[in-house]
Each structure stands twice: as C-alpha cells, then as structure tokens.
Fold:
Amino acid sequence: MIHVIKKDVPKTRDKILIRVAAVVAALLVSSIIVIFADANPINLYIGIIQGCFGNLHRFAATIQIMVPLLVLSLGVMVAFKMRFWNIGAEGQFLMGAIGASLVVRIFPNLPLPMMILTMAVFSFLFGAMWLLIPAFFKAKYGTNETLFTLMMNYIALTIVTALQYDFWKDPGAKGMPKIANFPANALLPSMSGFNLSIVFAIILVILACFFINYSKIGFEITVLGESENTARYLGINVTKTIIIAALISGGLCGLVGMFQTAGISGALSVGITGGLGFTAIIVAWLSGLKVPFIVLNSFVFAVLLQGGSYIQTAFQIPGSVAEMIQAIILFFILESEFALHYRFVSDKETREVA
Amino acid sequence: MNNDYVVKMENITKVFGQVKALDHVEFSLKKGEIHAILGENGAGKSSLMNVLNGIYVPDQGRIEVKGKTVTIHSPKDALELGIGMLPQHYKLVDVFSALENVAAGSRKTTPFLNKKKILDEMGKLINQLGMDIDPNKKVYAMSVAEKQSLEIFKVLYRGADILILDEPTAVLTPQEIKNLFQIIRKMVEVGCSVIIITHKLDEVMEISDRITIMRKGTTIETVNKKDTNSEALAGMMVGDVMELNVPWVEVTRGEKCLEVKNITAIDKNKVPVINNISFDLYAGEILGVAGIAGSGQKELCEGIAGLYPIKSGEIIFDHTNIIGKTPEDINKMGISLSFVPEDRLGMGLVSSMDIIDNVLLKDYKNTKGMGISRVISRGKAKALVEKLNVSTPAIENHAVSLLSGGNIQKVLLGREIELEPRLMLTAYATRGLDVRSSQIIYDLLNIEKKKMIPILYIGEDLDVLMSLCDRIVVLCEGKVTGIVNPRKTTKEAIGLLMSGVTEEGKEK
Structure:
C-alpha cells in the first residue's frame, strides 16, 4: 500500500528546485502533444512568449487578462483568509457586470467620471450582495458556503442569460441575442489597449496589502479563519466579521464585472467571465493567500491564457491542443505544490512517521 | 511474579528528523508485573510504547516478546502477540452500547452479531476483573471512568495479556483511580502484565512493582519499588535535584475583589452546568478550583470572562455586576480579565501566527482607527521571550505551533501577565507541561499573587492545587461542594467533595 503523508516545512532551495522541475517537466510532456499536432515544440514555446510580449498590442492583451484575474483573486483571498470557501467569484463577477449595465441603462447620459464611479459602486454592491446571501446563511444557520456559493454562480448565469435573450435584448441587433453596447461615456478610457482598470487594480493591490496586514478588520478575519473559538474569546463579533469579509470579497469580484464590461467587452453577455472566476481560486490558493504572490501568479496565468490563444492562430494548431498545454502546465504546477508539502511512502515507512 | 520476561526491548533507537526520540533504550517487562514508566514530558515514554505497539518501527534495536524476536509493524501485529495499548483518547462509538463497542472491530465476531455469545464471554471476564460495566449501557451515558473500563475491557477481550496504559489516571477522581488500580491488580492476578505510563510519583509508588525512569529519550534506570522512594525517583526523573513542592507563598490577603453570588448557567440541553455557585476572591490570593473534568470549571471561567451566558445570579467586580457584558465591554470598562483557556491552541493563541501577532491579539483593539501597529507588540513579545526564557528561534515569522508545549504555555500566560490584569483567571495552565515548565508557571502565578493580584486557578492535579492555592473551591456537577483550606484538610477529603460527598471537609 502507498500512503500520502505531510512533509516538514520545505526549504527555500527545495521550493525553487521543485517548481523549476515542474515547469521543465510540464514543457517536456506538452512537447509530446505538440509533436503529435505537427508543430515544433521549441518554436511553439517561443510563440507563447511572443504572443504575450511580442508587441504592445499583445502585451496589452496579456494585461487585459491579468487585471480581472488579479482582482478576482484578491476578492477570493479575502474570503479564503477567513476559511470561507467562496467558490462563487464567477457569479459575483456576473452580478457586478449586471450592476454596471444597470447603471448604463438607468443613467445613460452621465458624464464619464461620474459614470465610472457609479458603475464601480453598483458593481461592487451587486457582487457584495451576491456573496452576502450565502454569508448570511453561514453566519446565522451554519450552512455550507462552498456548495451555496457554487450554486449561486449558476443562478447568476441564468439571470444574465435571461437578460441577454429576453429582457435586455438589443432590438437593434437584428434578432441576435445580445445586449446593447455601452455608450462611449461608459467605456473605461484606454490607451493602446491598456485601460483604466489597471489603475484600479494597482490601487486595489495596495489596499489589499494594507487591509490584510495592517487593518483591524483584516486581522480579525485572519484570526477568525484560524480559530473561531479564539475569535470569540477575544470578543470579535463573528457574525459581523463574516458579513464584512463577504461584502469585501464579493464586492471585489463584482468590481471585475465593471472592468470587463466597461473596459473590454463593451457589453454584458453570458461569456464575459471566460471562467476567470474559477481560475482566480487556483491563483489565490497557489499564492498561499499572499498579495505579492497573487500579483505574480495572476501574471503567470495571464501569460498562459494569452499565449495559449495566440499559438492557436499563429501555429494553426487546434484550440484543444493549446488548452491541453495549459492544462498540463497547470497540472504540473499543482503537482509541484503537492510534492512540496506531501510525499508518498510505502506501507512500512508510514508507521515510522505516523 | 516470576522472572520470565514477556517483553524485552534492547538498544531501541528512533530518530525523527533531527531529534532522537529514543536513544538506545532498554526495557523489559516480567510476566505478571505492573511496570511503571516514569518521566517528564518528552522523555520518550509514549514513543517507546508506540514502538512496542507497532505504531513506530525503531531504526535500531531488538524486541523480544514471549521469548521470540519479533518485528511489530502495526497495532494489529502487536495484538497478535498479545500486546494491547489503551488509547489516550477513547475510541468508542457514542451511540453504541458497551456490548456493541466490544463487538465492533473484534475479530471474534461473525458477520452476524451473536449478542448472546459475546454477552456470556463478557460476563465471565467482567466477573473475573471485578469491573463495573453494564453491557447494554450506551457509551454516551457513561462516565469517563466507565469509558476507560470499557476500553480496557475491549483490549482484554481481543486477547491482549500485555497491557499498556498511557496516563490512565489523568481524567479520574481519586476514588476512580483507586478503582482502576484494583482492576489493574485483578488483571495481573488473571495472568496479565501491565505497563503504566505516568508522571505522578504517588501513583507509581502505589501501584507498580518495578519502575523504569526515562529522561530525554534514554532509560536512566529500572528499579524495584521496594528499593526506592519518591524523592529518589523524582531526582532521577528530572536529573538534578529539584524542589518538587510547589511553594505556597504567604501573603496577607487584601480586600475582596470578586464576588460571585448564586450564579447559575445552563447548557444547550437545558442542564444546569453551573448550579447556584457562590464564592469570593480576595486580592493576593490564589483561589483554586478543583473538580473532576467537566464539573463546570470551564463554564465558570468563561462565565466570568463573559463568554458563557449566565442565567441568574451576580458577579460583582469593581462594585459592578459584570453579568451580561461581552468580553469587549468588560475590557472597555477598564476591567481586565485574563483568561488562559483550557485548550491553549484552540482559544488563547492562533497557532499559525508568530509570537508578535499572538501578543497583538490582545493589544490591537487598544489603538485608535482602523489600522494596527506591531511596534508595541514587538516590544512586548521581545520582553516576554526574554523574561520567561521562551526558547524560540524568532518572535517573527515563526508560528507558535512550531514551539514546544511548555513554550506555547509560557507565551500564553506571559501575554496575559504582560497586560497587567486586575484579576487573573487561569484554567489548566500547566496541562501537558513537564515538571520544570510547570514550576515556571507556578512561579509566575506566585509573583502575580505577591503583587496582590487575585487569581482564580482551575487545576487538575490535586497535589499542586493543595500546595499552590490559599483556598480551594471544590466543584461537583456544577455545584460547590466545599470551600476548603488546603493546609487544614486532606487530599482524600477533597476527593470526596469532588465526588459529591459534602459531610466533611468544610472550612467554616
């Protein structure tokens, strides 16, 4: 029998070695698939880099993926710090996008700065509200937030579908089920593809750093996550803390809905999330819920995603191959985390360390 | 007793990472003897027994059981050789009866439960051992002692004749301990050999035939009880000669600080966990609270700290009734209650945080605004580590969970003392600590006492309670069964009060 056991705290040297080994191994395994797809692996890997940094336009595309992913990961992190497993970033993202779109529909003629501010507030509130529902039930009745937030994603998606195919369907789209594009005064100002959301993201990163490390509420969230009993003992109001953390977590994810609609897609649609809400969970977790690593990892994931889509067109390989490469790399990165913290032992060895 | 050895362990060495848990240990068990293993925390007692029980495989050494050299790979292997270890935390199914618990996992059972057959077999064994087990009683209705008996019985029923008991008396009253010892003696009569791990000297002297003293992973000596005494054993256990007695410091007590009047609290099941308790606490006094585990000590402590709802009665501190206030309110009023909760890593400290942040836990609310500052806490943490001699590689970025139990306890208590409390509530402050670390904790408490701080000390070890405290409140099932002066009463008298006998032993 083979068992899995936890290792001691890994050394920094081991951490670096194992991670480098994981990336190398991932590239080697992907190469096999690339060769089957009749492409040269070396060229392809260079292609990924070129697809992300080859010119300003491509770099902008990478950043366009990184920004939402980063902010979503920050949102997820806040909840995870409290051991509140918010799997609903995707849904909060969509709700935030609905919030932004609602502002555009209600006040279509606001001047740009006011418009951005109002959209930001609404998208934040919509996202926050979406997480507040499971948080309330968790705080009050102890329901399981993992399943609750997960299911809320599908409700949000259904609402967006209903809006897109019926209630908010653009009559001018010749029967196409789409929601009307935002007017110019509701689009985030941008320069060669770099839009205002980057500034938002930078501010949010700084705020998140401060929030987690140097704010009372952030400290309370961490304490509550580590031990609810300790929190109670210190006189921390558990219900209040859960609610505040949920508002911030959901709000940040909701804000991304505004970045995406007003900054990139220009309109609400069922496809705007691109699954980033789920990717954010991986990013937050791989980063050990630490802000600097979240920044780094959202960049790495953005490179993977953007590079993957670039090589599809540049090398004429099927989209599924690009996805397989991404999956393989991700798999190896996750495996390296596993290898860092656990190891396999045979039956005999287990007892020695049990 | 004869001189056949049923277990011989020679040259046993076991290394975990950098730490030598067992270093060339020698141990032998004669047939039909009661052999005590004595040692401080971390001396290697449990590790050695885990080797014998097959949980650890030694890196070096030879084990001989009943004359044959063996390798034991699992508790199952051990049981086949007749070795059974009583788990420290009972592994019983609450909703099952005693009978069902015995049947579950026993290899004697057929696919279908033959209750009658098991019942017959159980009856025989129960009679032989003079145990008090009702086969049909559900586990949830049992007392701790009954559960323990059941665990012992389970091991015996599965055919063990070499029994390892790891700290079996920790959770029992003196009467229950007596009972347990009787059972152990009966077991020996029917042909079992018993190893008992403990750090209580008086128990060792009472029950054992031979004693093996361990220190820092090695065996110091194996002696016959006849040839030794408590002082000699204590000397071998701690190494150098140490004052074993917990000093009682004479302080003229000051004014009344805390007045608990007829408080009552009920638990979820509407059962009173604190039942009409009254007592006073004076400045410069350590008031002990004795009682069997679960007699309301925790609720009393939490009740005063504002963490457990008190249904009726009054708790007067600083001329104010503090019942109904939240812990936060109590702090805001300028009343500082320091409370060392039972489970030091569950409630008092955050295990994954470093010492600074753990000090900050009690401080962060004192700063104004939304932010927190670690400047003050860093200073306090540094002072705490130096003053209490906490052995830690760093106060920053080194989780307290990586420290040893004694050091964790020092951090916890030290932090509370640093807050300069006006009333200290401590519960199980030395739980799991060795003699040396406990001594430091007692000294700390005595220093606070000399500063005229009133201290409520909830303890487990009667000997310690009796020598440390000025008075002892004895609890039984949520009621005060007596408030005694430990210097004017006996341990037995307190033991009786703990089990609810109230005729004698009262102070007034």
